[in-house]
Design a protein that fits this description.
Two copies of one chain form a homodimer.
Chain A lengths: L4 H16 L5 H9 L3 H14 L3 H10 L2 H9 L3 H9 L3 H10 L2 H10 L2 H9 L3 H12 L5 H4 L5 E4 L4 H11 L8 E5 L5 E6 H6 L6 H4 L7 E2 L4 H10 L4 E5 L5 E6 H18 L15 H18 L1 H9 L1 H6 L7 H25 L7 H63 L9 H26 L1
Parallel strand pairs in A: 1-2, 4-5
Antiparallel strand pairs in A: 2-3, 5-6
Helix pairs in contact in A: 3-4, 3-5, 5-7, 8-10, 15-16, 17-22, 18-22, 20-21, 20-22, 21-22
């Protein structure tokens, strides 16, 4: 079973009660903590640090755990909290924790430390570790290099199966995964891969070179993490090897990290879809000032974009003054167009993100949208027509119904095409957000509605 | 390296050219196909079946592959296409393919077959296989049972490490993963788990019962697939064991299937976020009629919801008639409120989906939203005020600025709270879609704007 929030809260309270006592019983601590997963302890710590900012208690809990477990738990905390913990630990213990952490997490945390602390810790590290850490920490955020780990099992070309097995047994404790092995030549270039499963069923005397898969799926170290996650998902990989310009193996991205990337990329797209900039942390934790900045930019831009709607209205002021009843249907019409358009845009943006839709499908999809949006428009026109009659008579009903079809159709096509246009100009299609699309449709809707009204009502 | 679209298209064309010839060189086929991954062949087939509907060619390609490979490739096709293929194959070959497929994929495909075919195939199956298939096919769509596989490695309690190793070697070819092992008692109840890694470093004579992890993370067979994916992600699992009511092991959900579920659940939420119903297939493939149905429901509902905006306008008709200039700012104000509200709603909905936000955080988040939305409203009011002066003098500017702050603040709080209210009443928070939120805010915005206008302008 896995723990739910209630269970976690219960354990947390119990631990805090114990901590409250003059002589807390650390044995009990150790026992309770040994019963739950590192991920869950991580959540408890995160609560303590973020919600209750009871850092001291958090550290006390961490202190009860073995260094290895503590490092594990630390790995589950968001960067900011990791920083707080490490920031309040003596170098020696901090160092121990860092050494036990996965090399990828270690590098991420390291990048958050301030210059002095970094230097202080580096000085105390073994040369090899220091170099590895510096290297991992040097890769750009959001690339394969930034999410890969260097804890993989490398097999030297020319080894026998039994030698490889030995190697696996030796590295088992440290490696992130021992289930996918990578064969390197003398230059450290990746020339093959094999699963532990293959190795186990192979003849002990056989050469790994003869049983390895030679055409390896790998990715360059500067590949965007979003694409890395896609490759892992597409080929159902346990881990994806990462190579440098000389096709030397520099690390692997494991399936669990790929899954985390996929989730955070999806979250980013959700936010982009509402014109919210990228948030480094959860909405409940990110600083208010950041949240404001990430939301305000587009909102203000769209205020000015909205002026086009105003301009349109100003242009038709006489028509409106003559038939104030028309205003009754304004929000309804532009709102409906905006909704249909936002739907069309989202279908395309998500389709592109999942690889279900490509630029080459544009023509086909346009045709489909024409049919669907047309039917939608007609349906909605039929729904609104009777109200038109009630409010302003048949002439107005005619205007409203006609406008509905036109606006919904136009809005849907606009929303559907925008992502492709953006993609064409190398802009992230997700920029075709609901707010942007609806604002554009508001303006066009105003013009369409009042043009039709002017034409029909003045001719009537 | 992994193939990009161009590379795939090139190979596809080459293969089609060859197929076009009177005496296609199947040897060349086999060679070219042996060079690319099953996932990629799957994509080529999918193209042939869906885009070009060249089913014959698709079958010809499949025919070149070994049954095992063919089954693999088939697994990468969407259900509808799998059906087309199987539907056009003789029972004997279809049966071979089904047998080679993963038990979970087999069950899914089986559920798509029509009654007669199902019976025909079942009759030709070995008893054990038939029962297993019937069982897997019986679980409800969208639950753990529907995505799990029964190809796992089970170890009997009481076995020694070396016996377990032997068992692993035997099952290696068939099992989805041999890297996580499950220890069962005589009743078939899951009493422990261990990784192959643990097994490899353990003493051959040791009893598995002494090295296994006793507190196993597992999930009931009727658990929603979305939650299953979350557990796999949270605990970085290779596979999650699925148990029945008597805690007997009935299957496992592997990390790659969990990742697929996470992606399709995210897509579903993207669509829900725009009031689009759940699509069984990609937007480029789903039937037009379905696409229409999934989009029209909410669109029409919202047309009527939009009448409230109209009603509001009707109520203030005199104010409007007296000051037609006010209409100029109507789309701008309600649009801005809608955008801010949609942002707030999306931040909450996604936060809940990723587990970053819980109902318990409501109070804290409300406070945060008050501050952020307030600042946003003031910023946008400052942006719009000058235009107010230009269009209708200082009085109008005052009305517009005041309305902007109120509408943005109110809209944001509405958008932020709605998901919590829905959650409270056991409705999917994602129902708080941008279209719904903006429509609600349109109506309230109209009332707020014209109330302020009536108050200030008549008193002026």
């Amino acid at each position: 079973m896995s723990l739910n929030d209630e269970a976690l809260q219960a354990i947390k309270t119990e631990l805090l009660d114990e901590l409250g006592k003059d002589a807390p019983n650390t044995a009990l601590f150790a026992e309770r903590l040994s019963e739950i997963r590192s991920a869950d302890i991580g959540e408890i710590l995160e609560d303590l640090i973020e919600e209750d900012d009871a850092l001291a208690e958090a550290l006390a809990l961490l202190d009860v755990l073995s260094t290895e477990r503590a490092a594990n738990v630390l790995g589950y905390l968001p960067g900011e909290s990791q920083l707080e913990v490490i920031g309040n630990l003596p170098d020696t213990y901090a160092l121990k924790l860092l050494e036990e952490m996965g090399s990828d997490e270690r590098a991420d945390l390291f990048n958050l430390l301030d210059e002095d602390r970094r230097e202080a810790l580096l000085r105390r590290m073994a040369h090899r570790e220091r170099e590895d850490l510096k290297r991992l920490a040097s890769y750009e955020e959001g690339t394969a290099g930034a999410i890969m780990t260097s804890d993989y099992v490398a097999i030297a070309s020319g080894m026998t199966v039994s030698q490889a097995m030995m190697r696996v047994r030796q590295t088992a404790p440290d490696a992130e995964t021992v289930y996918q092995l990578y064969v390197l030549d003398s230059e450290g270039q990746l020339i093959g891969t094999m699963s532990l499963r293959q190795l186990m069923v192979a003849r002990p005397g056989a050469l790994v070179d003869n049983i390895m898969i030679k055409d390896v799926i790998s990715t360059p170290v500067d590949k965007e993490q979003e694409d890395v996650a896609k490759i892992v998902a597409r080929y159902d990989l346990l881990a994806l090897p990462v190579i440098d310009a000389d096709s030397r193996l520099v690390g692997i991205v494991t399936h669990d990290d790929a899954m985390d990337v996929a989730e955070s990329e999806a979250t980013e797209d959700f936010h982009k879809g509402m014109s919210i900039g990228q948030l480094e942390d959860g909405v409940s934790r990110v600083p208010l000032w950041t949240l404001y900045r990430k939301r305000v930019t587009w909102l203000v831009l769209l205020v000015f974009a909205n002026l086009f709607s105003g301009a349109g209205i100003a242009y038709f002021e006489d028509t409106i003054a003559a038939q104030v009843a028309l205003v009754f249907f304004l929000p309804l019409l532009i709102g409906s167009g905006g909704n249909a358009g936002a739907q069309a845009a989202t279908l395309m943006v998500r389709g592109m993100a999942t690889g279900d839709v490509g630029v080459k499908d544009w023509g086909k999809l346009l045709g489909r949208e024409l049919l669907v949006a047309g039917s939608l428009g007609i349906t909605m026109a039929i729904a609104v027509a009777p109200i038109g009659v009630m409010r302003g008579g048949e002439a107005v009903a005619m205007v409203v119904a006609l406008s509905m079809v036109t606006i919904v159709l136009f809005g849907s096509l606009l929303g559907m095409c925008l992502p492709f246009v953006l993609e064409r100009f190398r802009v992230d299609p997700a920029t075709a957000s609901a707010p942007l699309v609806t604002t554009l449709i508001d303006a066009s809707g105003v013009v369409i509605y009042f043009s039709i009204a002017t034409a029909l009502l003045t001719s009537v």
